[in-house]
Every structure is written in C-alpha cells, then in structure tokens.
C-alpha cells in the first residue's frame, strides 16, 4: 500500500500506534481452532497487494525460531517476531509463520508473519505479555543485533503504550532510510504478529496485514 506521503519517524510511529491500538474485538468472540494457522498467514500475492510492491520470494516456517542475539536484553522480543520465548508455551496448540520479500536477494520490502493458537486464553495472554512486559524497557533504546549469518545491524526502537491486547512499535536502521513496523495482537486464544520493513511509512501496510490475518481467525 502506497500512500504517497512521507512521514517523519515520530509521525509515522504515532499513526501506526493509533491504528494498532484501535479496539478491534467482536461482540461475541470465541476461541479459534488450531487449524486457523493454515489460513492466517497470507501468501505472497496478498502481501504484494498490501505493501504495494512486488513480492517474489517467500519462506514458510512451522516453528518459532530466533536467528540473532541483541546486546540490550529488553529489546530481544521487539527485535523480531515469531520467537521461541514468546510462543514456546506448553499450551501452544499450533503455530505458523512466513517471511516474504521483493526477490531472493532483494529486501526492498520485507514482511514477516507469525501466528500461534493456544489451548486457552490464559496461555495466549502469557505469550502476549512476554512481548509487552519485556519490551517495556526497549522504547528509545539503540541496540546491536548480531545475526546468525554473521551480519551486524544497529537499530533504534520506538514504541508507545501497549494496550491490553494490542502493541505496536517501530525500529529504525542506523544510517539508512529503513524502518520495520510491527504489530502484536492478542485475540482470545491467539497471538498474531506482523512486521513490514521498508523505506518510508509502513504503518498503514502492517495494520492492513495484521487485520487481514485477524479476519481469518473465525472468532
């Protein structure tokens, strides 16, 4: 999705948070079945439409993973999504995730999705709080990520007040016009996460992506 606008980092963050923290509950939500993870992760065609650019490569993953270390522990669960610390709960019933990007060697647009269905709402709430409680000390921090492939990246993190079921934050790559816009949503027994990385404002795109994922939950 291209808006034609170039927002400052603070304005983009404010817009992303305003979108993310808008209440989105249905009046009579019910728990999701484990099988919804097969539908909640959007394919590259849908992702391309949402980000407004070509998406030629995607990779699915069926288990949480972490492929980096970070020198500011509070930022660990803001640095990426689909992490073991968040999802690896004994009551995790099903999980699915995917990454998608412009081309195999081109991350002009990079999108990641993760969704976990838990046996009950209490377990999902625990997972959600692994994100918001640990990340509470990350806002305003600059942290170095050391990726398992040997690369090193420096990011500055900005986030607002997380709601009881919605959280959003942005990380800015040092020395580059590149930001990742991230949302985490708790919906009954589901925790879903979406991340859009690009130049300019990816806030509207990540909000549409997370909303589309949420619409598949059957709640």
From TrEMBL:
Annotated keywords: Signal
Superkingdom: Bacteria
PknH-like extracellular domain boundaries: 33-215
Signal peptide: 1-29
InterPro entries from the UniProt entry: PknH-like_Extracell (IPR026954), PknH-like_Extracell_sf (IPR038232)
Pfam families reported in the protein's UniProt record: PknH_C (PF14032)
Protein's name in the database: Putative secreted protein
Species per Swiss-Prot/TrEMBL record: Mycolicibacterium chitae (Mycobacterium chitae)
